[in-house]
Amino acid sequence: MNNPVIVVHYHELWLKGGNRRFFLGKLFTALRQALQGIPVERIEQPGDRFVVRLGAGAALDEAIRRVERVLGVAYFAVARPVERDMDALCRAAWEETEPLRFATFAVRAKRSDKTFPHSTMEIESAVGRHLLETLRAQGRDVRVQLKDPELTCHVEITPGPLLVYARKIPGTGGLPANTAGRITCLLSGGYDSAVAAYHMMKRGAHLSFVHFYGTGARPGESSLHVASGLVRALVPYQFRAKLYRVPFEAIQREIVRAAPEGVRILLYRRMMLRIADAFARRDRALALVTGDSLGQVASQTLRNLVAVDAVARMPVFRPLIGTDKMDILATAKKIGTYDISSEPFHDCCPVFLPRSPELSATADELAKAEANLDVEALVAQGIRGATIEKFSFSEGRVEATEPVPVMPADQHRTAIA
Fold first, then answer.
1. Neighbours of 48 (CB within 10 A)
2. What does the alpha-carbon distance between residue 379 and residue 402 come to, in Å, rounded to a whole number?
């Protein structure tokens, strides 16, 4: 009996012109990494798809789960290997399509092995005729429709066994992991920032994460376990990730002591951007990303976002800026971060929440509000107290290192220069 075969299709990579080889190489690497620990005979690239030939004893369900998370895959299918014989091909096509319900169908053949004695047109005609006659013999009301059929039976003519499949499994889409450069994400424990990170990963960015946490929470309520859980859920898409953990409550207390009440949260956010910027530069990242959605809360009005961004020294991307909350929650459920973000935790931002937050601040107003703060010292304090946790995805498991201090004390000033 032949081992299972997975046929992987991509879409957007066809638009890459002269860079296509680079992106396809990254997709090949991602497939190989995702399937580590599962017996794989080889991964081939006949024409415009990849063919993953699983080895003896491969767990097919686990392989499917892993390929589903490979960025750059438009869709894939578990193909039925068939002897290199037209009658065997017709029988396999019937076995593949018989359980499915449809009114129109077509057969599409691709022949990467030109030694097979039948042309694609001959294959499509013979298999299509066999399916139509057999289906009608069972009393099923079906017809052939070459344009936009309800079901397409695919036949792949490769140098090995012939491959037949009719059921497609949606992939994640987007671009392969680690093709667009490095970005640093300000990761809260909520739904939005994890979804924002996922959207940037789908565009090929490699993300590191910075999480700001309060130290005054009761036992078991710290947001650190939620932040780590979110990175664990996201790291299978890009295979490795860093999480910078920054204690923030002492910095908040200093802001509360020295700044007007109405702009506290905006000053928290400006301080977070400065500290995240330091870690981004340490990792040679080119931009920051946040989970802000326009108008969702008081700090996310257009004027407030602009005023906060005035301190940023690199671009701040907000992929959810025009996204509806229900859409954000739907994506969180899809990628497995919803339940993690639903856990109770101590969020540092609402601490010392102003009774009447500013809705329309300017950069100059916030700069004046920071006049009594030693901003550089507070940034250094955040860096000095930070720890780093590293995550990796290998052989279907996520592993994490024990958190350690980010850098020796003598490097703190260099980090914020």
1. 13
2. 24
Could you tell me the pTM of the whole model? 0.90
Which secondary-structure segment (H or E) carries 61? helix 60-68
Tell me the two tokens of residue 110: 């691709």
Q: Locate 9 and state its tokens.
A: 């299709």
Averaged pLDDT for residues 201-225: 84
User: Cα separation of 34 and 171, whole Å?
Assistant: 13
DSSP strand E in 96-215: where? 104-111, 143-144, 151-157, 162-165, 169-170, 182-186, 206-213
- 123-165 pLDDT, tens digit per residue, is 999 999 999 999 999 999 999 999 999 999 999 998 888 999 9
Q: What CATH number matches the domain at 5-170, 3.40.50.10860, 3.10.25.10, 3.30.2130.30, 3.90.226.10?
A: 3.30.2130.30
How far apart CA 370 and CA 354 sit, in angstroms, is: 16
The torsion region of residue 63 among left (phi > 0), alpha (psi -120 to 50) and beta comes to alpha
Is residue 201 within 8 Å of 177, Cβ to Cβ?
yes
Pick the CATH number of 182-416 from 3.40.50.620, 3.40.50.920, 3.10.580.10, 3.90.1150.10: 3.40.50.620
Task: Give me 220's structure tokens.
Answer: 């078991």
How far is it, in rounded angstroms, from Cα 161 to Cα 195? 41
Task: Assess contact for 201 and 238: CB atoms under 8 A.
Answer: yes
Tokens coding 209: 């994460």
